[in-house]
Specification:
Elements (H helix, E strand, L loop, with lengths): L7 H24 L4 H7 L8 H25 L1 H21 L3 H29 L2 H32 L4 H4 L1 H15 L13 H22 L5 H22 L15 H31 L4 H7 L1 H21 L1 H18 L9 H27 L4 H33 L7 H20 L1 H4 L4 H5 L8
Helix pairs in contact: 1-5, 1-6, 1-8, 3-4, 3-5, 3-9, 3-16, 4-5, 4-8, 6-12, 6-13, 9-10, 9-16, 11-14, 11-15, 11-16, 11-17, 13-14, 13-15, 14-15, 14-17, 16-17
């Protein structure tokens, strides 16, 4: 991309524009979960099988992240950023107008196409438009709304559902999206690549096909109750696509993601650690509101407010993460923290109607703190060993894996919950299904600790001056 020369007004407005886009995306990612039971009743669906609405968004975002940089370079950052906000806003309107489950899922896909392009393109423009001396300051400013979104999203979603209707969790995006479109058209620099870059279309289709097929297979076990033979077929074809991608990537000049990235041990450990450790944390925002509302009888507003400690705990521990990692090293932090996180997720199986509210909130606050520490340590150790040449590609793959693992976490949680729930069950039987699901998700998360044993302790200790997420 060409380096932008910004006038004073654009330099002031541009961070606000990208920050608003980031806020819209993070708010949408958390506001929906509290509304799922109400949406299920309105659409005549089983609330325990609504994970497709969440997965459709996450999976679409994961699919399009690898293409976002190329699309911006090819067609210009202003056009793509404007189109991204427009698509996100249009998708929000279609979601609010949906009258069936399938229509809602398709509308979420439209919304996700816009969401997938907003933040990567905005971050790329910031990188190109500001000198490196200003980059950290601007990105810190942009990251703040990303912390506010998860804090107010569940509560706002619960209140809107209880005192208005679930449609408003999407309609509130319309005025913000309209302002964003106008601002993008006026203030977003139009940056393009001077050279025509070749895109690995075949690799994109193989890699994306693998993600879609494997996720649908897991979702099929839960929401769609797909026959096991069909699930096995989808997993086999998805695995074959993934194998074909990596075999092909090793023999072409510019693959979507180069296998040479995995020659860096810390990157390989970090990527696979992210994939498995995030299964539990990805499932929590989906499972907890359902548990509170369906099994424990909370109102949507009560369930939303109960999620606040997760975000507050994450914000509280953020300043302490780096000093703790500096003192103990990545290997010790990641092994111990992963085991603790899995234990805390499994401990949610003890929650029932007699659990004191104070104890529940303390439990969720602690999970939020441990989760935040996990994200910071995993992301940093994944990228620290990469060369400047591989940093961009490695960061893109990490972003894909983060979205994919959360999607797989929701799909796995839905499959487990569906498997443990007896048809026609209610009351204690539904609560037991949730308990068994939390135990399994916690155990799955703990298994990721075996991956972090593969980190070299000396190499892990030098990664002290990088901070992400």
């Amino acid at each position: 991309m060409n380096q932008a020369v910004l006038d004073a007004r654009t330099a002031r407005v541009l961070p606000w524009l990208v920050a608003i886009a980031f806020f819209m995306q993070t708010l949408d990612g958390t506001i929906l979960n509290t509304a799922l039971p109400a949406m299920a009743r309105d659409l005549a669906e089983d609330p325990l099988r609504m994970q497709g609405v969440v997965i459709a968004y996450m999976l679409t975002v994961a699919l399009l992240i690898p293409a976002s940089g190329w699309v911006a370079d090819r067609f210009g950052s202003r056009r793509i950023f404007f189109s991204a906000i427009l698509l996100f806003t249009l998708g929000s309107l279609l979601c609010a107008m949906s009258t069936s489950f399938n229509q809602l899922v398709m509308s979420r896909v439209v919304q996700a196409i816009g969401g997938a392009l907003m933040l990567p393109v905005g971050r790329l423009v910031i990188l190109r438009a500001y000198p490196r001396s200003e980059f950290v300051r601007v990105m810190t400013f942009i990251a703040l709304p990303g912390m506010v979104g998860p804090l107010i999203g569940p509560t706002l979603g619960g209140w809107l559902v209880e005192y208005a209707s679930w449609h408003w969790i999407f309609l509130i995006n319309l005025p913000v999206g309209l302002i964003g479109c106008i601002a993008a058209f006026r203030f977003m620099p139009d940056l393009k690549s001077a050279e025509r870059m070749r895109f690995d279309t075949v690799g994109f289709l193989l890699f994306g096909g693998a993600m879609v097929l494997i996720t649908i297979a897991l979702e099929g076990l839960g929401e769609m109750q797909m026959p096991h033979a069909r699930v096995l077929l989808l997993v086999a074809v998805g695995s074959a696509c993934l194998a074909a991608y990596w075999l092909r990537a090793g023999h072409i000049d510019s693959p979507l993601f180069s296998p040479t990235l995995f020659h860096t041990r810390s990157f390989a450990v970090g990527i696979f650690g992210n994939l498995f450790a995030r299964l539990g944390s990805g499932a929590l925002p989906f499972l907890l509101p359902l548990l509170l509302q369906i099994a424990l009888g909370y109102s949507p507003a009560q369930a939303g407010m109960s999620m606040i400690p997760l975000a507050l705990g994450a914000m509280f521990i953020k300043p302490l993460a780096k000093p703790l990692i500096d003192r103990l090293g990545y290997r010790r932090i990641l092994i111990g923290n992963t085991l603790l996180l899995g234990t805390l997720i499994a401990s949610l199986a003890t929650i029932d109607g007699q659990t004191p509210t104070v104890l529940l909130l303390a439990q969720l606050s602690l999970i939020g703190m441990v989760n935040s520490m996990q994200f910071t340590a995993m992301n940093t150790v994944t990228l620290v060993g990469l060369s400047n040449q591989n940093a961009s590609s490695g960061n893109s793959l990490l972003s894909v894996v983060v979205q994919l693992s959360m999607s797989l976490g929701v799909a796995s949680a839905g499959a487990l919950l569906g498997g443990f729930t007896v048809p026609g069950a209610n009351g204690a039987a539904v609560l037991e299904a949730f308990h068994l699901t939390f135990l399994c998700i916690g155990a799955m998360s703990m298994l990721a600790a075996s991956l972090f044993f593969q980190l070299d302790s000396k190499q892990a200790m030098v990664a002290r001056h990088i901070d992400t997420e």
